């Protein structure tokens, strides 16, 4: 999907996930947290992540 986004001229991607979902997966794939909502939902966090596309060393 990222390759297609680059082909279409996109240079950045962003997404959100919860602490009980896929944050480690996205971190391993180059995404970084830029904001977090604590206790949303109660007892958890909502994370907002971003990645600059096309900067990976291949």
How is this structure best described in words?
This protein has 58 residues and is α+β, with helices and mostly antiparallel strands. It has a single domain (2-52), classed as Aminopeptidase (3-Layer(aba) Sandwich). Helices cover 21% and strands 38% of the residues. The chain is built from 2 helices and 3 strands; from the N terminus they run H-E-H-E-E. It has helices spanning 2-7, 23-28, and strands at residues 12-18, 32-38, 45-52. The chain has a 3-stranded antiparallel β-sheet with strand order 1-3-2. Strand 2 (32-38) and strand 3 form a beta hairpin. The radius of gyration is 13 Å and the shape is elongated. The relative contact order is 0.31.
Describe the structure concisely.
This protein has helices at residues 2-7, 23-28, and strands spanning 12-18, 32-38, 45-52.
